[in-house]
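=== Structure Prediction Worksheet ===
Name of assembly: unnamed complex
Input type: mixed (protein and possibly other molecules)
Chain count: three
Listed entries:
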Amino acid sequence: MGEVLAPYRALLASRLRSQLAYRRSFVLDLIGAVGIGVLELAEVLVIFSSITVLGELDLAGALLLFAFAGIGFSLADMAVGHVDSLPRYLRSGTLDAFLLRPLPVLAQLITSDLQLRRLGRTAVAAVVLVIALSMNTIAWTPALVVLAVLTPLFSAIIFAALFVCAAGVQFWLVEGGEFANAFTYGGSYAASYPTSIFSLPMRVLFTFVVPAAFTAYLPTLVLLGHAGPAWTPAVLGWFAPVAAAGIWTVALLGWRAGLRHYTGAGS
Amino acid sequence: MTEPIISATGLGRDFVIRTGRGLRRRRSITRAVADLDFTIEAGAAVGYIGANGAGKSTTIKMLTGILVPTAGRVHTCGLDPHRHRRELARRIGVVFGQRSQLWWDLPLAESYRALAAIHRLGPDTLRTRRGTLVERLDLGEFLETPVRQLSLGQRIRGEIAAALLHSPELLILDEPTIGLDVLSKERLRQFLLEERAAGDTTLLLTTHDMDDVQRLTDRIIVVDHGRMAYDGTLPGLVERVGADRVIVVDLEETTAPLADVAGTRLLGVEADGLRQRLAFTPGSTTAAAVLAHVSARAEVRDLTIEEPDIEDVVRRLYASGT
Amino acid sequence: MSALAVYAGLGWRRWSAYRTAAAAGAFTNTVFGLIKAAITMGAIGAAGGMLAGYDALTGATYAWLAQALIGPVNVFTWSELAERIRSGDIAIDLARPIDPQAGYLAADLGRAAFQLVPRAAPPLVVGALVTGLALPAELLPYLLGLVSVTLAVVVSFACRWLVNLAAFWLLDLRGVMTLYLVASNLLCGLVVPVHWFPPWLATVAAWTPFPAMLQHPIDIIMGRAAGPEALVLLGEQVAWAIGLLVVGRAVFEIGARKVVVQGG
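=== Predicted Assembly ===
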């Protein structure tokens, strides 16, 4: 195992060293990332400054939701967020360089540009998570503890798959990076609000097609003991691993097809 | 007999080009490479020549597994390049002169550490190999400088060391000297000559620079519009297209233009006829015969024979439509 | 003046070359519009059907108009000038017989003119179909709205110009750009209407040019600000535009002197 991972460790270590080499600009970037996290939080707070309940969630519930989605998305963004700028890699020939190395291309792409600065956003969301957990009254059981711990993790895994989907699509739509944004950043945006405020088609879209609801909303319902709206009952909150497996299958197939398209092996 | 390091049979690649918009959208097929047959034996040094868009890069991409052929077969190091991309990557080194495989914000030393991990070189192997390359490519001075701060010449040397780090059997260089100044070019050629003399690395080189071809290769393949136009030695090519040679004579005293020497064309007269340039086609006459004719008219103080300009030779090859 | 028209034309043409990108941008704006309209309507519903003067329909209309205008107004980052300053290409702009600020502004207006229809129409059409739009029936708000959107582009440009000028003094602008992005997105009314802000935040916003980029034009188009009120908003936009352009000029002069004296 260690043998297999050694190249990636070396790649990641070299990336981290280069980011930390320019300390001042790294700190500024980190502050910028905190700023983005605060902006997203401000949006929720401004909305709740005029109302008390959105969907079935009060401010405390909404903050819990925000925190799960925020941690998941920012971790995914840190690890694989750069893959949706695939056209840049295509133009600069970096992808060809990857193809000339004895490692899988996707693994090289993922390890090529880990962005530590995005942890600034994770930090904001983590602070909100601590506050939100203390604000809500949750009837803790061991199962719920496991759920609360695993939710940010599976949230990150699901968002990471969305980024890989976005990358795969761009083998065909080189100019259409923003199409992909609609599902990655759009998915994250939709995930930070109770899915129940959406119309049924959108709720189905963001649950079963782009599984954003699994990253935060559905587990939050389970933790807070809500029933959940029609078609997307709270019990689905336990199924984030299934959603993650599903979307990763789609992502990897899409990536494989995209790479085959690029190398002309047919698609 | 050992297996050739590259063998291509009927190799071809089509691209679908879409033009126009909406209803007027059309698909047309462009043939970037067609019917290429060649083999390259281990240890050879081959120049792969052609005009822009002649199909050079497409061929290189097919040889290295980046692109899949639409026709024919290719084997590199005995492998199907696309199917065994990763295995092949361990055995070849590739340098694209205009693209970088180094990490632009890291020093070369870091890039080599990462590449060593990628190719699973042990620390001892890395140390010896890196030491040799650093010394021979003279990288010591800027080994710790981030790549983006290197000059082009330094970067290309760094790229070549990166490609050779894992001691590949085959080194493919795509326009390695493009944009380099005269000194850096010369240095690079010197290194490549030494590398060839030292080991059994096979060299495949695409270039626009005819000096590269002359100095570095013992065989050339010329492609024109994706098809093989010539495969052989450089002198053989010169002979095939029948390029003229030029004989330049410096005479002892001012002489009337030597316009009627049999089998030659007078190209120019300088300094009142003290220096005259005559072109002749090998085959129709010889340098000795020309010299004999000239000596009969005036005393020759010195003479030089100019080899044909190779770009001109390739142009002639293209023009002859073979 | 004709040179500026040429620059505006170039701005238009450069962007019209990226049709797929424009389509992709419009698609993303529309998807975000769907989410945003749902959130807005959800919040208004939770507030009892009315929130800061918006009912469900006008709230959704606000969300759709915001999504329609962000492309042309470009409240996001722009770093072309900063890149030219860093690479030293700015010297080429200085050598041209046209004022750089005016030249870039003309090009930006050309870009905005090109993007207006392709970026604004798709979200508005989808909005009309999905939630319906509450738009005035008379012509005047649209005419004033067009003036207001143009002014919004100028204000947005003047702000981005200033942010980019930081490249004369700073090596890495990413931090500055991100903070600008955060401040402008929140305070221009993109995430929620400025009218929803708690009083202290509304006061902060009022002291910045950001509402002039999005909230003002939308208020005018929707007829929320009509007659004298609309004129006040337009006046505010003009004041911000002139003020920021003048400051931008002065700062550019100082930066350009640095380039000329130190040779980059």
